Amino acid sequence: MAANPQHWRKRNGLTQVEAAALLGVSQPYLSLLEKGARPLTATLRRRMKALHRTDDLDSTDERFRAQLSALGYPGFAHVAPARPKSSPDALLLCVLAMPDADSRVVEALPWLVQRFTDQMDLDWIVRQAKLQNLQNRLGFVLQTAGVETPALSTAVHELERSRLIEEATLCWDSMPAATREWMRVNRTPLAEHWNVLTGVQPENRDNAA
Q1: How far apart are CA 102 and CA 108, in angstroms?
Q2: What does pTM read for this prediction?
Q3: What's the CA gap between 167 and 165, in Å, rounded?
Q4: Cα–Cα distance between 95 and 112 in angstroms, integer?
Q5: 130 and 139 in contact (C-beta within 8 Å)?
Q6: What is the spatial distance between Cα 124 and Cα 188, in angstroms, rounded to a whole number?
Q7: Distance between CA atoms of residues 88 and 67, nearest Å
Q8: Where are the alpha helices (DSSP H) in the chain?
Q9: How far is residue 129's CA from residue 126's CA, in Å, rounded to a whole number?
Q10: DSSP state of 75
């Protein structure tokens, strides 16, 4: 993908306002970026790459596995790592935005938060999650990570304030009806709190360590 903000925005079908919100910059600043009046930072390049849309689910899952491998996730140690590395916060948000994703990738998300909490721009992640109605998914993953820092506690508190009533899955929107019923009955109290249908538990995080 060419590191050109305007090409990236148009290829993804975004307005300047929508693209600026996703990248965590103001619309006027994005306009300056597109005109070449401001430099494109490494952080913005990583976010553009991680938020790049694709309709090919298989290749997307392969990309996620390679990115997690590059970040040191033990579960994908056998996968050729992506180069360059993705930023952990952009990768987290990109996976959470998927209607359906490889269950092994989803199980890695609590580990990703646990391992890289200090490197994540949690304010940006929370803003983007709220814009995309992903706050329940994100809140569940952040708490499943089992990390306690002031910044993460603030993020969870902000997500609590905007918690959605509508039931969601954790990147498995194609879940069969019978499985949904089973998940609804057997999910963890934390998953029930965030109204998320998932089998991901803290032990997934611990087993990956």
Answers
A1: 10
A2: 0.75
A3: 6
A4: 11
A5: no
A6: 28
A7: 9
A8: 5-11, 16-23, 27-34, 42-50, 57-70, 88-96, 103-107, 109-116, 122-131, 135-144, 150-161, 177-186, 189-193, 202-208
A9: 5
A10: G
* Per-residue CA distances from 167 to 45, 108, 173 (Å): 33, 22, 11
Residue with token string 């307005």: 15
The token pair at 134 is 């992903």
What are 144-200's pLDDT values in tens digits? Answer: 999 999 999 999 999 999 999 999 999 999 999 999 999 999 999 999 999 999 999
Evaluate whether 197 touches 187 at the Cβ level (below 8 Å). yes
Burial of 18 (0-12, 13-18, 19+ CB in 10 A): middle
CB 19, CB 9: distance < 8 Å: yes
Do 19 and 5 form a contact (C-beta atoms < 8 A)? Answer: yes
- The model's confidence at residue 55, banded by pLDDT at 50, 70 and 90, is very low
What residue type is 110 in one-letter code?
P
